[in-house]
Design brief:
By secondary structure, the protein is mainly beta. Helix content is 7%, strand content 56%. The protein has a 9-stranded mixed sheet with strand order 3-4-5-2-1-9-6-7-8. The model has no long low-confidence stretch (mean pLDDT 93).
Length: 115
């Protein structure tokens, strides 16, 4: 499992959560992996960021929860399936699994604010 440092921000006014991998800029492809959840991938097929629009509604958590400094995101993908899990203070708040119809190659990442 590849581990990277997560820089997260939450815009309460627009209810938008953004989790960016430290040191990664831009993206080559943007995939909607679920309603309101977008995964950005660079030209080397490495995740660069996650964006969740209407985050408190999509993730079914309070806005205060999304302001936490202790957030982790795991992304596990193979040729058939993409799994996305998000944790706030070690409690899972989101677990998504979808068909990998995006052509994303095998990857296994833990993106953590505390690395």
């Amino acid at each position: 499992m590849e581990k990277q440092r997560l820089i997260s921000s939450y815009d309460e006014l627009n209810d938008t959560f953004v989790g960016k991998i430290e040191g990664r800029n831009g993206y080559d492809a943007n995939y909607s992996i679920s309603e309101g959840v977008f995964l950005n991938i660079d030209k080397n097929n490495i995740p660069t960021s996650v964006v969740v629009n209407n985050a408190s509604e999509v993730l079914n958590v309070s806005k205060q929860c999304l302001e936490s400094a202790d957030i982790k995101i795991s992304i596990d993908c193979n040729e058939n399936c993409l799994s996305f899990n998000m944790y706030v203070e070690n409690s899972e708040i989101c677990s998504l699994k979808c068909r990998n119809g995006f052509g994303i190659p095998n990857l296994n990442y833990l993106i953590d604010c505390n690395i």
